[in-house]
Every structure is written in C-alpha cells, then in structure tokens.
Amino acid sequence: MSQFNDYYGNSGAGGGGGGGGFMTGGSPYGSASGSPGGASRKTEIAHSLRPLTVLQLLNATQAHSDAEWMLDDTELGQVTVVGHVVSIQSQATNNLYWLDDGTGRIEARHWIDSSIEESGTGSSAITEGSYVRVSGTLKMFGSKRYVNATHIRPVKSPHEIYFHLLEAMTVTLIWAKGAPPRPGQNPSTTIPQGQGAGPLAAGGSAYAVQSHSAAANNSQYSHLPKLECTIITFMLNQPAKEEGVHVGSIARAVGGDAVTISNALDKLMDDGLVFTTIDDSHFKVAD
Question: Which of 97, 71, 70 lies closest to 86 in space, CA to CA?
Fold first, then answer.
C-alpha cells in the first residue's frame, strides 16, 4: 500500500500526516522499540495516526473526561477518517463539517488560522456534497463527541475512499488478531481455529500470531483455581502485544463480577504468574 502514501502528504489545510501509521515495521502504530511502560510509548501512541470509520469513532470509550480514548482496549492517538460532507457551518473562528461515511455521522471542527493563507486545495475548496479526509483527535464537549481537525482537505480520487476503508479494516484486524505471517514465515506459529478457551479463541486465523500455545502450558497452571486458570488460558490465547491484555477483555471473556476478577488477578500477581505493563489495567503472563 506504499503507493498510496501521498494520501497523507503535505496538501490541504495545514499539511498532513505521514503514512498510514501502521505499515512501518509491521506494527499498526509504527516502531515499538520504546519501553512498554515508559513515556516513550505514550508519546508514540499520541503521535500515531490510525485510520478509522465513523462508527469506530462513535464506539470509542473514555473512562473519564481526562482519560485517553480507547477502542477495543487499544488507546487511540491521532485519527483519520474519510467521509461525505453533509453540511458546512462557517463561523468566525472555525468551520463545522458534518461527515457521513456510510457507517455513521460525526462532526469535525477545524479551527481557522488567519496567519496561514490557504491554497485552493485547503478547507476553502471544500463544498457540501464532496468527500474529504480529516485528521485530528477525538474530543468530547458536554455529551457531544467530535473530531478536532488539525488537517482537512478534499479527497483526491475515488480510490482514496476505498483505500481508507480497506486500511481501517487492516489495522483493526492487526490490532485484534496480530500481524499476518510474513513471506516465508511458518504459519504453524498461529493458533488453529477453535483452540483455547474464551469466546475470542473461536475466531482464530492466520492473523492470530502467538508465541506459545495455551494447550502446551495447561499442565503448568493445572493446580490453579478454576477462575485463575481460565484467566491464564485466555491471556495465553491472545495475540502477543507489548502492552498485554486489558482487564476489560479478560472480564468479557471469562465472565463474573469485577471484584472477583480483580481478586483473581491480584492473586496471580502475588504468585508471580502475571504482571502489569503500561498501567494497572493491562496484564501479561510471566514467561
């Protein structure tokens, strides 16, 4: 997909981001060489650019008003969306665009910088009924969420619309199931379909890259109580990520109330079987 990198090039109001955000180094958010729990990862995510649909933006959650936006237990940094301009409301300091991409509608707010003279490819060239690419951050004001657009420009060609949808699906699959096997890589390192416990394990595929199988480690954890063993088995069947598994994913998979699951995780940490990573809500199994 590198031939389409100019979709993020320096054109439009204020320029654009670089690349789709997920191709570099085979990671959805580019290089992940920094420490999983350090400030470098926070900076990396904050400066990443993830392609999303409007529905994904509407499904993103926020624990509280100052918390980071999360989608499927993954933190969101910069986002980019392609949509049809339903209406435009011009104001003295900003322009409001209602965008529809077929999955939903969301407002994009672009602040006007009077010190920058916009060219014909910038926001001044955007009209109702056209398609635009918007890049920025997801925000909430009151009960209304919107995209705080740092860059907005008209779509260059119809192919960009299809490319964006395919890119959004690709990045979502990589985050959910791991990167697909590289050319020449043995696909046997992936989890066969239906192996393991939990509802997510049934959807295993070539994307579900995993470094070790839960079945091979069951004997190591057979002495654990049922809930703790189920949690370990579920975590072992998840795609290998530096940040580990979010407690929300564990709760949805194994069931039970939050206090019981929290106590089980505390016991597993006390036993040295799991540990926290980027925060107190992400866990990994100790090797």
Answer: 97
Residue 284 has which token pair? 């990994």
Cα(155)–Cα(126) distance, integer angstroms: 9
Secondary structure class of 247 (helix, strand, coil) = helix
- Please calculate the CA angle 138-165-31 and round it to the nearest 5 degrees: 65
Q: Is 220 left (phi over 0), alpha (psi -120 to 50) or beta?
A: alpha
Q: Which residue bears the tokens 């910038």?
A: 122
pLDDT tens digits, one per residue of 233-280: 888 888 888 888 888 888 888 877 778 888 899 999 998 899 998 888
Q: 43 in helix, strand or coil?
A: helix
Do 230 and 197 contact (CB within 8 A), yes or no?
A: yes
How are strands ordered across the β-sheet holding 274-276?
A: 245-246, 282-285, 274-276
Contact 250, 235 (CB under 8 A): yes
- pLDDT value at position 119? 52
Contact 25, 174 (CB under 8 A): no
Residue with tokens 């997920």: 22
- Work out the burial of residue 225: count CB atoms within 10 Å of its CB; fewer than 13 is exposed, 13-18 middle, 19 or more buried: exposed
List, run by run, the mean pLDDT of 10-residue segments along the chain (287 residues). 51 41 38 41 68 95 85 88 95 92 95 65 79 94 91 93 94 79 57 38 37 48 86 86 84 80 89 88 86
Q: What confidence score (pLDDT) does residue 147 get?
A: 96
Q: d(Cα 146, Cα 137) in Å, to the nearest integer?
A: 8
Detail the DSSP E strand segments found in 162-273: 245-246
Residues 6 or more apart whose CB falls under 8 angstroms from that of 250 comprise 231, 234, 235, 261, 265, 283
